[in-house]
Amino acid sequence: MSVARHPRPPELVDVPIEDIMKKFVGRFREKTPDWAAFEDAKIEGFKRAQHRFIGAGGSGKHTDPSVIPAKNFTLSIMYVEPGQGNAAHTHEVEECFFVLQGFLDVFVEDEGGKRLTTRLGPWECIACPAGVIHGYQNDSLEPVYFQVMIGRAKPETMGYADEYLYKKRDAHLKAV
């Protein structure tokens, strides 16, 4: 007989394991790429698709019924074509980029505009601390897939470094 050494959270007490399996498995083939997940994704150079698995990530789309409910972090897969990336931004918690396929140029930036960039390949990552300006660009010749994790179940929408984008940072949510 198996013994659970830790209690289930209140919402899963007495829930059959069949229901748990159904609710907590995410399959890539069942995900629809969201090309409008972020306000900056409307701009050439920042176009990308988010595949949400656990929570909404920094998109703010917290009511997406197709995702595994987030409790303490989010997990998404991003697809980025060559020449595309995202706008410099921050989060109130840490964010991690973990490259699965392809090459991704990631950067950190200070408030004075000094930027440091490095290239990540498959099975390499960067952990971006809370409040540090960061972002990425696919400057390679092939598409890149990478995993994004944010350290909060329902993080705020991205805090763009650009003032115009920051003021419109949740406009994509109002247009839905």
Explain what the structure shows.
With 176 residues, this protein is mainly beta. It has helices spanning 17-23, 163-167, 171-174; strands at residues 49-54, 74-80, 89-90, 95-101, 104-109, 115-120, 125-128, 133-137, 144-150, 159-160. Strand 5 and strand 6 form a beta hairpin. The strands form three sheets. It has a five-stranded antiparallel β-sheet, with no helix packed on it. It is built from three helices and ten strands.
Layout of SSEs?
Elements: H1 17-23, E1 49-54, E2 74-80, E3 89-90, E4 95-101, E5 104-109, E6 115-120, E7 125-128, E8 133-137, E9 144-150, E10 159-160, H2 163-167, H3 171-174
Could you give a quick summary of the protein structure above?
By secondary structure, this protein is mainly beta.
What structural keywords apply?
mainly beta; 3 helices; 10 strands; single chain; 30% strand; 176 residues; three-stranded antiparallel sheet; 9% helix
Please tally the helical runs, counting DSSP H or I stretches of 4 or more residues. Answer: 3
List segments where confidence is low: pLDDT < 50 over at least 5 consecutive residues: none
Number of strands: 10
Alpha-carbon distance between the two ends: 49 Å
H and E string? HEEEEEEEEEEHH
Largest beta sheet: what is the strand line-up? Answer: 1-2-9-4-7
Summed over residues and divided by their number, the pLDDT gives a mean of: 95
For the CA atoms, what is the radius of gyration?
A: 17 Å
